[in-house]
Amino acid sequence: MTQTTQGTPRRAPAEPFRATLARFATAQKGAARSAPAYSRFVNRRLGRVLAAWAYRRGLTPNAVTGISALCTFSAIALLAGAAPSWPLGVAVSLLLVLGYAFDSADGQVARLTGTGSPAGEWLDHMVDATKIVTLPIALGVGLYRFEVVEHGWLLVPALHAIAGSVYFFGMILTEQMRRAAGVVSAAATGGRAPWLRSVLGIPTDYGTTCLVFLLLGAPTLFFVGYAAIVAATVAVALAAAVSWYGQLRRLAAAGGTE
């Protein structure tokens, strides 16, 4: 999830695409060493290619955010409106992957062009918050409409919507409260990557959610994979909530407040 911005388009310099891509590679901030594997090694690189493409066409970061939203919410609409099948799964997965990559690209364009703004960050977070809750809801609607699973299993996507929304809100709120206390979080980006932590993060990686829809043509297999993602999301959200609460209590104690 990246920061997007407002700003006027800038005409790309007359240079080969490869040269533009290289400038993005050297100008961007490093990815957190503990970031889940797909987000770090796949999505960020896809986003860099799309960012270079958007920059050369003079697109603003907010326009890139709009493309991301269009791809993502088209996939969400398909989930709610079409019967599960292999073609549907491929289409949904491809659109979600593109939406996620453009979500990375908007922040990269913003940083390279220096057009960051609070309004752009707000827009990016609003799109993220909306997709987090509407994706599992749309899945539940589609599963119900086409009677893919027993109705009791529809609690799984409902739980996903709750856990995902709470986790995202908690992450944003905790960061804002840390900043208010004068603490700015900064994930380590240098040195060797902790591969185990990146691999362990795969079940809760949004990229994994994008890819699991490739199994939509085999509903039972898909639901097993999807349920595992939801279980991991719930576990991480609970663990993060406990950790965040403890951190904020310690900050309060250090500042002499409760």
Describe this structure in words.
There is one protein chain. With 258 residues, the chain is an all-alpha fold. It has a single domain, classed as Four Helix Bundle (Hemerythrin (Met), subunit A) (Up-down Bundle), CATH 1.20.120. Helices cover 71% and strands 0% of the residues. The chain has nine helices and no strands. The protein has helices spanning 17-27, 37-56, 61-81, 86-113, 118-145, 155-180, 195-200, 206-212, 219-254. Helix 2 crosses helix 4 (86-113), helix 3 packs antiparallel against helix 4 (86-113) and helix 4 packs antiparallel against helix 8. The radius of gyration is 19 Å and the shape is globular. The two termini are 31 Å apart.
Keywords:
phosphotransferase activity, for other substituted phosphate groups; CDP-OH_P_trans; Four Helix Bundle (Hemerythrin (Met), subunit A); transmembrane; 9 helices; 71% helix; transmembrane helix; mainly alpha; CDP_ALCOHOL_P_TRANSF_CS
The name of the CATH superfamily reads CDP-alcohol phosphotransferase transmembrane (TM) domain
Shape: globular
CATH class: Mainly Alpha
| Content-based structural category | mainly alpha
Number of helices: 9
Tell me the CATH topology. Four Helix Bundle (Hemerythrin (Met), subunit A)
> Beta-sheet strand percentage?
under 5%
Please describe the biggest sheet, giving its number of strands, its sense, and whether it closes into a barrel: none
Instruction: Please provide the ordered H/E string of secondary-structure elements.
Output: HHHHHHHHH
Q: What's the Cα radius of gyration? A: 19 Å
CATH architecture type: Up-down Bundle
What count of domains describes the coordinates? 1
- Low-pLDDT stretches are 1-7
Helix content: over 70%
Mean pLDDT across every amino acid position: 87
Number of strands: 0
- What's the N-to-C terminus distance? 31 Å
Family: Belongs to the CDP-alcohol phosphatidyltransferase class-I family.
Keywords: Membrane, Transferase, Transmembrane, Transmembrane helix
Protein name: CDP-alcohol phosphatidyltransferase
InterPro entries: CDP-OH_P_trans (IPR000462), CDP-OH_PTrfase_TM_dom (IPR043130), CDP_ALCOHOL_P_TRANSF_CS (IPR048254)
